[in-house]
Amino acid sequence: IKKIYSHAQSLSQCHQWILNHAPGVELQSVSSNAEAVKIASKEKGSAAIASIRAAALFSTPVLHENIEDDPKNSTRFLVISDHEVKPSGLDKTSIIVAAKNQPGAIASMIEPFAKNKVSMTKLESRPSKTGLWEYVFFIDVEGHMTDSKVALSLKEIESKASFLKVLGSYPQSNLT
Fold first, then answer.
1. Candidate list 58, 60, 77, 137, residue with the active-site label
2. Is residue 110 one of the residues assigned to a domain?
3. Distance between CA atoms of 141 and 91, rounded to whole angstroms?
4. Residue 163 has pLDDT above 70, yes or no
5. What is the DSSP letter of 15?
6. Could you give the count of Cα atoms lying within 13 Å of 87 in the half-sphere of its Cβ?
7. What pLDDT score was predicted for residue 11?
């Protein structure tokens, strides 16, 4: 194998395996792991890092499995829709929020989750496109946006945040 194709995130998540088993092989980042398999299936001397499902889709043999550096690693995929999903009883809600530029703004902004006993499962910051050193926060919480505790928390956060967008609610994954 002279070249390995994959999405940049997958290449980084398999870095140690690549160093140990494919030293010196050229790495090529592409838009998705499925695209990587599509390219590799047509190019002699190349391989792809992707799911078994992607390999089956393009009738490509699997050479090695479980090559990720962290076996607990998982990738989450979402189905995007313009209609709300009804509560399943075991849901998550995802939001994007921006804090006002003042001391303690982030702590104050997420405090309603603790006060209303809503479990926050993810808090991730990303640079905002609005200005230097400004950030937006992606937050996942347990519960549906129509659940009383979640709805109350979101209402309180909206009054504290400079921006709030509820991305939606969806059934939780059953990953273990």
1. 77
2. yes
3. 9
4. yes
5. H
6. 11
7. 97
- Say which of 58, 60, 75, 146 is annotated catalytic: 75
Dihedral angle of Cα 140, 143, 147, 153, to the nearest 10 degrees: -40
Q: pTM for the complete prediction?
A: 0.68
State the pLDDT confidence band at 76, using cuts at 50, 70 and 90.
confident
pLDDT recorded at residue 135: 85
113 catalytic residue (yes or no): no
Evaluate whether 169 touches 92 at the Cβ level (below 8 Å). yes
Of 39, 57, 75, the domain-final residue: 57
Whether residue 160 sits in one domain with residue 95: yes
CATH of the domain at 49: 3.40.190.10
Q: What is the pLDDT of residues 104-131, one digit of tens each?
A: 989 999 999 999 999 999 999 988 887 7
Residue 95 CA to residue 88 CA, distance in Å, equals 18
46: CB partners within 8 A, 6+ apart = 1, 2, 3, 4, 5, 39, 40
Q: What CATH number does residue 112 fall under?
A: 3.30.70.260
What would the mean pLDDT of 59-73 be, rounded to a whole number?
Answer: 93
Residue 103 lies in a domain: yes
Domain range holding 52? 3-57
| 130 tagged catalytic | no
